[in-house]
């Protein structure tokens, strides 16, 4: 289900839904299981292709998942008012993971006119916290200026 910040269901990601699970998300295997303006959940399976040299989940994957989940959540909340872009990502790695399915859940800390702050918690199949991150998003209402 996709729900916008004004509580209506439907077109919060209109024109953007086709990009979910694409790009880097596809390389990681990230699958979105819940998308609302107040929470986003996604899962992926740890595979050897996502390991760092010590044979555990690469920390960059955690950072990318944290940013993806926060960005999708922020986009849904902002709705048709514009796009969001990440401007800061701080992710802590708390428990090494070699295999299994991980779940990321993003919840808002602050949602304002110009910026948002989201916390994303990543847990393993035993519901143990393996990583936790915070992403600050800028709300961009003049979408023609992104990347210019």
Fold and architecture overview:
The chain is an alpha+beta fold and 148 residues long. It has a single domain (11-145), classed as Roll (Thiol Ester Dehydrase, Chain A). 17% of the residues lie in helices and 38% in strands. The chain is built from two helices and six strands; from the N terminus they run αββαββββ. It has helices spanning 24-28, 59-78, and strands at 31-35, 40-46, 83-93, 100-111, 115-123, 129-140. The chain has a six-stranded antiparallel beta sheet. The N and C termini lie far apart (33 Å). The relative contact order is 0.19.
Map the helices and strands.
Blueprint: H1 24-28, E1 31-35, E2 40-46, H2 59-78, E3 83-93, E4 100-111, E5 115-123, E6 129-140
Antiparallel strand pairs: 1-2, 2-4, 3-6, 4-5, 5-6
GO molecular function: 1,4-dihydroxy-2-naphthoyl-CoA thioesterase activity
Pfam families: 4HBT
Keywords: Hydrolase
Instruction: Compute the CA-based radius of gyration.
Output: 15 Å
- Counting DSSP E segments of at least 2 residues, the number of strands comes to 6
Instruction: Write the H/E string, N to C.
Output: HEEHEEEE
- What is the number of independent domains? 1
CATH superfamily placement? Hotdog Thioesterase
Net shape: elongated
Going by helix content, strand content and strand pairing, the class is alpha+beta
Main sheet characteristics: 6 strands, antiparallel
Pfam family, one: 4HBT
GO molecular function: 1,4-dihydroxy-2-naphthoyl-CoA thioesterase activity
Domain Thioesterase: 55-131
Keywords: Hydrolase
């Amino acid at each position: 289900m996709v729900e916008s910040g004004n509580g209506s269901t439907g077109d919060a990601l209109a024109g953007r839904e086709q990009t979910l699970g694409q790009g880097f998300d596809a390389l990681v295997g990230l699958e979105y299981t819940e998308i609302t303006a107040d929470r986003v959940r996604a899962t992926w399976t740890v595979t050897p292709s996502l390991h760092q040299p010590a044979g555990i989940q690469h920390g960059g994957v955690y950072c990318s998942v944290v940013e993806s989940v926060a960005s999708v959540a922020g986009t849904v909340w902002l709705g048709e008012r514009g796009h969001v872009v990440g401007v800061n990502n701080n992710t802590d790695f708390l428990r090494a993971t070699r295999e299994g399915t991980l779940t990321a859940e993003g919840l808002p800390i602050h949602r304002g006119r110009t910026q948002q702050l989201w916390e994303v918690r990543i847990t393993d199949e035993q519901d143990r916290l393996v990583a936790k991150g915070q992403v600050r998003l800028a709300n961009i209402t003049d979408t023609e200026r992104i990347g210019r």
